[in-house]
Amino acid sequence: MKIAVTGATGHLGSGIIQTLKQQVDNKIIVGIARKPEKASHWGVEIRKGDYNNKRDFDAALRGIDVVLLIPGMGGAEERIQQHRNVINAAVKNRVRKFIFAGFFGKEGNTTVDPLLKSYRRTEKDIMKSGLEWIIGRDGLYIEPDVEYIEKYREAGEIVNCAGSGKASYTTRSELAYAYTQIILSDDQNGKILNLGGEPITQKQLASYMNKAFNANLSYREVSPQEFLEFQIKTNGEHLGKIVAGIYTKIRNGEYVMDSDFKAAAGREHISWEKYFEQLAS
Ligand code: NAP
Protein backbone atom coordinates (compact mmCIF):
# COMPACT_ATOMS: atom_id res chain seq x y z
CA MET A 1 0.00 0.00 0.00
CA LYS A 2 1.39 3.43 -1.01
CA ILE A 3 -0.40 6.74 -0.46
CA ALA A 4 0.58 9.80 -2.51
CA VAL A 5 -0.24 13.39 -1.53
CA THR A 6 0.41 16.20 -4.02
CA GLY A 7 1.25 19.78 -3.01
CA ALA A 8 3.67 18.32 -0.44
CA THR A 9 5.39 21.70 -0.03
CA GLY A 10 2.13 23.54 0.66
CA HIS A 11 0.19 24.17 3.87
CA LEU A 12 -2.55 21.60 3.31
CA GLY A 13 -0.40 18.95 1.61
CA SER A 14 2.27 19.05 4.33
CA GLY A 15 -0.44 19.06 7.01
CA ILE A 16 -1.96 15.89 5.57
CA ILE A 17 1.45 14.24 5.40
CA GLN A 18 2.13 15.12 9.06
CA THR A 19 -1.28 13.79 10.15
CA LEU A 20 -0.86 10.61 8.09
CA LYS A 21 2.54 10.02 9.69
CA GLN A 22 0.80 9.73 13.07
CA GLN A 23 -1.40 6.92 11.76
CA VAL A 24 0.62 4.86 9.27
CA ASP A 25 4.21 3.82 8.62
CA ASN A 26 6.22 6.66 6.98
CA LYS A 27 7.37 4.17 4.36
CA ILE A 28 3.96 4.00 2.70
CA ILE A 29 3.61 7.80 2.33
CA VAL A 30 4.79 9.53 -0.84
CA GLY A 31 4.78 13.32 -1.10
CA ILE A 32 4.70 14.83 -4.57
CA ALA A 33 6.21 18.26 -5.20
CA ARG A 34 7.33 20.21 -8.23
CA LYS A 35 10.49 21.07 -6.28
CA PRO A 36 11.21 17.89 -4.27
CA GLU A 37 14.11 19.50 -2.38
CA LYS A 38 11.57 21.84 -0.70
CA ALA A 39 9.85 18.83 0.91
CA SER A 40 12.88 16.64 1.67
CA HIS A 41 12.63 17.28 5.44
CA TRP A 42 9.23 15.56 5.89
CA GLY A 43 10.84 12.15 6.45
CA VAL A 44 8.80 10.46 3.72
CA GLU A 45 9.59 9.55 0.13
CA ILE A 46 9.27 12.63 -2.11
CA ARG A 47 8.75 12.33 -5.86
CA LYS A 48 8.84 15.06 -8.49
CA GLY A 49 5.55 16.17 -10.00
CA ASP A 50 4.69 19.41 -11.79
CA TYR A 51 0.98 19.52 -12.69
CA ASN A 52 1.94 20.91 -16.09
CA ASN A 53 4.12 17.91 -16.85
CA LYS A 54 2.27 14.68 -17.74
CA ARG A 55 5.45 12.62 -17.73
CA ASP A 56 6.29 13.68 -14.17
CA PHE A 57 2.99 12.27 -12.94
CA ASP A 58 3.15 9.11 -15.05
CA ALA A 59 6.35 8.36 -13.13
CA ALA A 60 5.31 9.83 -9.76
CA LEU A 61 2.19 7.64 -9.49
CA ARG A 62 3.97 4.36 -10.26
CA GLY A 63 3.01 1.77 -7.63
CA ILE A 64 0.63 4.18 -5.87
CA ASP A 65 -2.67 2.82 -4.45
CA VAL A 66 -4.32 6.02 -3.22
CA VAL A 67 -3.64 9.55 -4.46
CA LEU A 68 -4.89 12.84 -3.04
CA LEU A 69 -4.80 15.78 -5.44
CA ILE A 70 -4.49 19.30 -4.05
CA PRO A 71 -5.03 21.99 -6.69
CA GLY A 72 -2.34 24.53 -7.52
CA MET A 73 -2.88 28.26 -7.88
CA GLY A 74 -3.14 28.64 -11.69
CA GLY A 75 -5.95 30.13 -13.78
CA ALA A 76 -9.32 28.38 -14.13
CA GLU A 77 -8.68 26.83 -17.57
CA GLU A 78 -5.08 25.99 -16.77
CA ARG A 79 -6.15 24.01 -13.70
CA ILE A 80 -8.50 21.77 -15.70
CA GLN A 81 -5.60 20.51 -17.82
CA GLN A 82 -3.25 20.29 -14.82
CA HIS A 83 -5.75 18.13 -12.98
CA ARG A 84 -6.30 15.98 -16.09
CA ASN A 85 -2.58 15.26 -16.19
CA VAL A 86 -2.84 13.80 -12.68
CA ILE A 87 -6.12 11.93 -13.33
CA ASN A 88 -4.78 10.37 -16.55
CA ALA A 89 -1.57 9.32 -14.82
CA ALA A 90 -3.65 7.71 -12.05
CA VAL A 91 -5.65 5.74 -14.63
CA LYS A 92 -2.47 4.68 -16.45
CA ASN A 93 -0.93 3.49 -13.19
CA ARG A 94 -4.10 1.70 -12.05
CA VAL A 95 -4.34 3.75 -8.87
CA ARG A 96 -7.12 2.25 -6.71
CA LYS A 97 -8.61 5.43 -5.23
CA PHE A 98 -8.48 9.08 -6.29
CA ILE A 99 -9.27 11.89 -3.82
CA PHE A 100 -9.68 15.53 -4.81
CA ALA A 101 -9.35 18.35 -2.29
CA GLY A 102 -11.68 20.77 -4.09
CA PHE A 103 -13.54 23.91 -3.18
CA PHE A 104 -17.06 24.52 -1.88
CA GLY A 105 -19.39 27.17 -3.32
CA LYS A 106 -22.92 27.22 -4.68
CA GLU A 107 -23.21 28.19 -8.31
CA GLY A 108 -23.53 31.93 -8.92
CA ASN A 109 -22.29 34.71 -11.11
CA THR A 110 -19.35 36.20 -9.23
CA THR A 111 -15.74 36.71 -10.29
CA VAL A 112 -14.73 33.45 -8.55
CA ASP A 113 -17.33 31.36 -10.41
CA PRO A 114 -15.09 30.61 -13.42
CA LEU A 115 -12.63 28.98 -11.01
CA LEU A 116 -15.42 27.13 -9.25
CA LYS A 117 -16.74 25.88 -12.60
CA SER A 118 -13.28 24.58 -13.46
CA TYR A 119 -13.30 22.59 -10.18
CA ARG A 120 -16.69 21.13 -11.09
CA ARG A 121 -15.19 20.17 -14.48
CA THR A 122 -12.37 18.36 -12.69
CA GLU A 123 -14.93 16.58 -10.50
CA LYS A 124 -16.69 15.33 -13.67
CA ASP A 125 -13.35 14.26 -15.16
CA ILE A 126 -12.64 12.24 -12.01
CA MET A 127 -16.11 10.65 -11.97
CA LYS A 128 -15.85 9.46 -15.55
CA SER A 129 -12.25 8.26 -15.21
CA GLY A 130 -13.29 4.81 -14.00
CA LEU A 131 -11.27 5.31 -10.81
CA GLU A 132 -12.77 4.84 -7.37
CA TRP A 133 -13.13 8.43 -6.09
CA ILE A 134 -13.96 10.75 -3.23
CA ILE A 135 -14.42 14.47 -3.79
CA GLY A 136 -13.93 16.94 -0.97
CA ARG A 137 -15.33 20.46 -1.26
CA ASP A 138 -13.39 22.53 1.26
CA GLY A 139 -14.84 25.46 3.14
CA LEU A 140 -13.02 28.74 3.45
CA TYR A 141 -9.69 28.54 5.29
CA ILE A 142 -9.83 30.71 8.41
CA GLU A 143 -6.03 30.96 8.78
CA PRO A 144 -5.52 33.82 6.28
CA ASP A 145 -7.80 36.00 8.45
CA VAL A 146 -5.99 34.96 11.62
CA GLU A 147 -2.59 35.65 10.04
CA TYR A 148 -3.85 39.08 8.99
CA ILE A 149 -4.51 40.16 12.60
CA GLU A 150 -1.80 42.84 12.75
CA LYS A 151 -3.04 44.43 9.50
CA TYR A 152 -6.63 44.32 10.81
CA ARG A 153 -5.46 45.81 14.11
CA GLU A 154 -3.73 48.69 12.29
CA ALA A 155 -6.93 49.38 10.35
CA GLY A 156 -9.15 48.80 13.40
CA GLU A 157 -11.65 47.00 11.19
CA ILE A 158 -12.37 44.14 8.83
CA VAL A 159 -13.66 45.51 5.54
CA ASN A 160 -15.22 43.48 2.73
CA CYS A 161 -18.47 43.01 0.81
CA ALA A 162 -19.80 39.91 2.65
CA GLY A 163 -22.31 42.03 4.60
CA SER A 164 -24.43 39.89 6.90
CA GLY A 165 -23.90 36.73 4.84
CA LYS A 166 -22.56 33.64 6.58
CA ALA A 167 -19.57 31.57 5.44
CA SER A 168 -18.69 27.95 6.18
CA TYR A 169 -15.10 28.36 7.31
CA THR A 170 -12.74 25.53 8.18
CA THR A 171 -9.08 25.17 9.15
CA ARG A 172 -6.28 23.44 7.30
CA SER A 173 -5.59 21.23 10.32
CA GLU A 174 -9.23 20.11 10.47
CA LEU A 175 -9.05 19.37 6.74
CA ALA A 176 -5.79 17.47 7.21
CA TYR A 177 -7.53 15.30 9.83
CA ALA A 178 -10.59 14.69 7.65
CA TYR A 179 -8.57 13.89 4.52
CA THR A 180 -6.41 11.46 6.49
CA GLN A 181 -9.55 9.52 7.50
CA ILE A 182 -10.84 9.71 3.90
CA ILE A 183 -7.55 8.27 2.65
CA LEU A 184 -7.49 5.44 5.19
CA SER A 185 -11.15 4.39 5.07
CA ASP A 186 -13.28 3.37 2.09
CA ASP A 187 -16.56 4.31 3.82
CA GLN A 188 -17.00 7.54 1.86
CA ASN A 189 -16.02 6.21 -1.58
CA GLY A 190 -18.16 7.62 -4.42
CA LYS A 191 -19.29 10.62 -2.35
CA ILE A 192 -18.97 14.39 -2.65
CA LEU A 193 -18.20 15.70 0.84
CA ASN A 194 -18.66 19.30 1.96
CA LEU A 195 -15.95 19.94 4.54
CA GLY A 196 -16.52 22.90 6.82
CA GLY A 197 -17.45 24.06 10.29
CA GLU A 198 -20.28 26.16 11.70
CA PRO A 199 -21.12 29.06 9.30
CA ILE A 200 -20.38 32.52 10.75
CA THR A 201 -20.78 36.16 9.67
CA GLN A 202 -17.94 38.66 9.39
CA LYS A 203 -19.25 40.37 12.52
CA GLN A 204 -18.93 37.08 14.42
CA LEU A 205 -15.45 36.59 12.96
CA ALA A 206 -14.42 40.06 14.19
CA SER A 207 -15.81 39.25 17.62
CA TYR A 208 -13.88 35.93 17.84
CA MET A 209 -10.69 37.70 16.71
CA ASN A 210 -11.24 40.43 19.33
CA LYS A 211 -11.49 37.85 22.11
CA ALA A 212 -8.52 35.78 20.93
CA PHE A 213 -6.17 38.70 20.25
CA ASN A 214 -7.43 41.28 22.71
CA ALA A 215 -8.31 43.53 19.78
CA ASN A 216 -11.11 45.97 19.13
CA LEU A 217 -12.02 45.29 15.51
CA SER A 218 -15.32 46.27 13.99
CA TYR A 219 -16.77 45.04 10.71
CA ARG A 220 -17.53 47.41 7.83
CA GLU A 221 -19.45 46.41 4.71
CA VAL A 222 -18.60 47.89 1.30
CA SER A 223 -20.25 47.22 -2.05
CA PRO A 224 -19.09 44.25 -4.18
CA GLN A 225 -17.89 46.67 -6.89
CA GLU A 226 -15.87 48.76 -4.43
CA PHE A 227 -14.33 45.63 -2.92
CA LEU A 228 -13.48 44.19 -6.35
CA GLU A 229 -11.70 47.40 -7.37
CA PHE A 230 -9.79 47.46 -4.09
CA GLN A 231 -8.79 43.80 -4.41
CA ILE A 232 -7.59 44.13 -8.00
CA LYS A 233 -5.54 47.19 -7.03
CA THR A 234 -4.02 45.38 -4.02
CA ASN A 235 -3.64 41.78 -5.22
CA GLY A 236 -3.73 42.02 -9.01
CA GLU A 237 -6.43 40.84 -11.42
CA HIS A 238 -6.16 37.04 -10.87
CA LEU A 239 -6.12 36.88 -7.06
CA GLY A 240 -8.20 40.05 -6.66
CA LYS A 241 -11.10 38.53 -8.62
CA ILE A 242 -10.91 35.30 -6.61
CA VAL A 243 -10.98 37.09 -3.24
CA ALA A 244 -13.69 39.59 -4.21
CA GLY A 245 -15.74 36.76 -5.75
CA ILE A 246 -15.58 34.71 -2.55
CA TYR A 247 -16.87 37.58 -0.39
CA THR A 248 -19.58 38.33 -2.95
CA LYS A 249 -20.64 34.68 -2.73
CA ILE A 250 -20.79 34.98 1.05
CA ARG A 251 -22.97 38.09 0.65
CA ASN A 252 -25.24 36.17 -1.76
CA GLY A 253 -25.68 33.22 0.62
CA GLU A 254 -23.69 30.93 -1.69
CA TYR A 255 -21.11 29.97 0.87
CA VAL A 256 -23.16 28.14 3.49
CA MET A 257 -22.91 24.37 3.32
CA ASP A 258 -24.57 21.36 4.87
CA SER A 259 -21.33 19.96 6.17
CA ASP A 260 -20.32 16.30 5.83
CA PHE A 261 -17.32 16.85 8.07
CA LYS A 262 -18.50 14.47 10.80
CA ALA A 263 -19.18 11.63 8.36
CA ALA A 264 -15.79 12.16 6.73
CA ALA A 265 -13.69 12.68 9.85
CA GLY A 266 -15.58 10.50 12.31
CA ARG A 267 -15.92 13.42 14.72
CA GLU A 268 -17.37 16.95 14.84
CA HIS A 269 -15.51 19.90 13.33
CA ILE A 270 -13.82 22.04 15.99
CA SER A 271 -16.16 24.81 17.22
CA TRP A 272 -15.07 28.41 16.62
CA GLU A 273 -15.24 29.09 20.37
CA LYS A 274 -12.71 26.34 20.99
CA TYR A 275 -10.53 27.18 17.99
CA PHE A 276 -10.14 30.83 19.01
CA GLU A 277 -9.71 29.88 22.69
CA GLN A 278 -6.81 27.64 21.66
CA LEU A 279 -5.32 30.47 19.59
CA ALA A 280 -5.56 32.82 22.55
CA SER A 281 -3.72 30.41 24.81
P1 NAP B 1 -0.25 26.49 -0.66
O1 NAP B 1 0.41 26.43 0.68
O2 NAP B 1 0.02 27.67 -1.53
O3 NAP B 1 0.14 25.16 -1.45
C1 NAP B 1 -0.10 25.00 -2.81
C2 NAP B 1 0.69 23.78 -3.25
O4 NAP B 1 0.44 23.57 -4.65
C3 NAP B 1 2.21 23.96 -3.09
O5 NAP B 1 2.76 22.75 -2.63
C4 NAP B 1 2.64 24.26 -4.52
O6 NAP B 1 3.99 23.93 -4.79
C5 NAP B 1 1.71 23.36 -5.27
N1 NAP B 1 1.66 23.70 -6.68
C6 NAP B 1 1.30 24.87 -7.24
N2 NAP B 1 1.42 24.78 -8.58
C7 NAP B 1 1.90 23.55 -8.86
C8 NAP B 1 2.27 22.88 -10.04
N3 NAP B 1 2.19 23.45 -11.25
N4 NAP B 1 2.70 21.60 -9.95
C9 NAP B 1 2.80 20.98 -8.73
N5 NAP B 1 2.50 21.58 -7.57
C10 NAP B 1 2.06 22.84 -7.64
O7 NAP B 1 -1.82 26.37 -0.53
P2 NAP B 1 -2.66 25.65 0.61
O8 NAP B 1 -2.99 26.63 1.64
O9 NAP B 1 -1.98 24.37 1.00
O10 NAP B 1 -3.99 25.35 -0.18
C11 NAP B 1 -4.07 24.25 -1.06
C12 NAP B 1 -4.88 24.65 -2.26
O11 NAP B 1 -6.20 25.02 -1.84
C13 NAP B 1 -4.33 25.89 -2.97
O12 NAP B 1 -3.40 25.53 -3.94
C14 NAP B 1 -5.58 26.51 -3.55
O13 NAP B 1 -5.90 25.95 -4.80
C15 NAP B 1 -6.65 26.13 -2.58
N6 NAP B 1 -6.96 27.21 -1.59
C16 NAP B 1 -8.13 27.09 -0.93
C17 NAP B 1 -8.50 28.06 0.00
C18 NAP B 1 -9.77 27.94 0.74
O14 NAP B 1 -10.10 28.90 1.46
N7 NAP B 1 -10.49 26.84 0.64
C19 NAP B 1 -7.64 29.13 0.26
C20 NAP B 1 -6.45 29.21 -0.42
C21 NAP B 1 -6.12 28.24 -1.35
P3 NAP B 1 5.20 25.01 -4.63
O15 NAP B 1 5.58 24.96 -3.17
O16 NAP B 1 6.25 24.51 -5.53
O17 NAP B 1 4.65 26.35 -5.02
Would you give an account of this structure?
44% of the residues are buried. The chain contains eleven helices and eleven strands. β4 (66-69), α3 (76-92) and β5 form a beta-alpha-beta unit. The chain has a domain at 3-137 and 171-195 and 258-269: NAD(P)-binding Rossmann-like Domain (Rossmann fold, 3-Layer(aba) Sandwich). The strands form three sheets. The chain has a seven-stranded parallel sheet, sandwiched between helices. With 281 residues, the chain is α/β, with parallel strands linked by helices. Helices cover 46% and strands 16% of the residues. The protein is globular, with a radius of gyration of 19 Å. The model has no long low-confidence stretch (mean pLDDT 97). The structure holds NADP nicotinamide-adenine-dinucleotide phosphate. Residues 7, 9-13, 34-35, 38, 49-52, 70-73, 103, 138, 140-141 line the site of NADP nicotinamide-adenine-dinucleotide phosphate.
What is shown here, in short?
By secondary structure, the chain is α/β, with parallel strands linked by helices. It has helices at 11-21, 54-60, 76-92, 113-127, 143-147, 149-155, 172-184, 202-213, 224-251, 261-265, 272-280, and strands spanning 3-5, 29-33, 45-48, 66-69, 97-103, 132-138, 140-141, 157-160, 169-170, 192-195, 218-221. Helix 1 links the parallel strand 1 and strand 2 (29-33).
